[in-house]
Design a protein that fits this description.
By secondary structure, this protein is of the alpha/beta class. It is built from nine helices and eight strands.
C-alpha cells in the first residue's frame, strides 16, 4: 500500500472498514503510509491538507514531522495510538484487530517511524513470512516473491490470484513483464478503488 490511501478521508476509512471486517491478513507498506495515516488521526490532515476538504492547513507541511516525533516519543505506533487516544484510521484498525503489518524503509523517508525496517533484506524476509499464507498480493516487489500456487490443508493445490492496482499503466505492466504472469493489472485511482471494494463487500463508506 502506498500513502495515497490516506490522502482522502473516504479511502482511509474504507480500508479501515475492510480490515475491521476481517478481509486483511497482513499489510505491506512503507513509512509514508503509516506516517500520513497517523497524521490523519492526529491532525486530520495528510501532507498538510485536510483529509476531507483537501484544503491546506497553516504550517500543515510540518504535521507529518510532528506526528513522527510524537510516535518516536512514545516509542511505538501501538503506544502512540493508546496514549494519544487515536480512534480511527488504517494503523488503528490494524493494531486493534491484531493484523500484522510490515513497514519497509526508503532513502526518501522522513523520520522514520520506530518500527520501520530500514534494511531491505529484513523487510523482504518479514514479507515472505506472511506471503506463504497470502492469497491477494500487491506491488512489484511482492509479486516477484509470490509463489504461483499454494497447497491447502487437505492437499488440494490451488493457484494464487493477485491484482496490482496503480494509477500508472507502467507499474501494472512492469509486474507482468518481470515474470508475475498470473498478475492482473487494474489502472485506476486507488482511493476510488478501495472505496468501491468496501461498498462491494457491503461495508458502509461515507462519501
Amino acid at each position: 500500500m502506498g500513502p495515497a490511501f490516506t490522502f482522502n478521508g473516504y479511502s482511509r476509512e474504507a480500508f479501515a472498514k475492510i480490515i475491521d471486517a476481517g478481509y486483511a491478513d497482513a499489510v505491506f507498506a512503507g513509512n509514508a503510509l503509516a506516517t500520513h495515516d497517523l497524521e490523519g488521526a492526529y491532525f486530520h490532515t495528510s501532507l498538510g491538507q485536510d483529509i476531507d476538504t483537501q484544503e491546506n492547513r497553516p504550517n500543515g507541511h510540518y504535521h507529518h514531522l510532528d506526528t513522527i516525533n510524537r510516535v518516536r516519543y512514545w516509542g511505538s505506533i501501538e503506544r502512540f495510538i493508546e496514549e494519544e487516544g487515536v480512534r480511527d484510521g488504517i494503523m488503528n484498525a490494524l493494531v486493534r484487530n491484531g493484523v500484522p503489518y510490515v513497514l519497509a524503509g526508503s532513502i526518501r523517508d522522513d523520520g522514520p517511524l520506530p518500527c520501520v525496517l530500514g534494511n531491505a533484506y529484513d523487510a523482504q524476509d518479514a514479507m515472505r513470512s506472511h506471503l506463504r499464507k497470502a492469497t491477494m498480493l500487491h506491488t512489484i516487489a511482492t509479486g516477484n516473491m509470490t509463489p504461483s500456487y499454494r497447497v491447502l490443508a487437505d492437499g488440494t493445490i490451488r493457484p494464487v490470484y493477485f491484482y496490482c492496482v496503480d494509477i500508472a499503466e507502467f507499474a501494472v505492466n512492469k509486474l507482468v513483464d518481470r515474470g508475475s504472469l498470473a498478475s492482473r493489472g487494474i489502472v485506476t485511482n486507488v482511493q476510488d478503488f478501495i472505496a468501491n471494494i468496501a461498498k462491494g463487500l457491503g461495508l458502509w463508506v461515507r462519501r
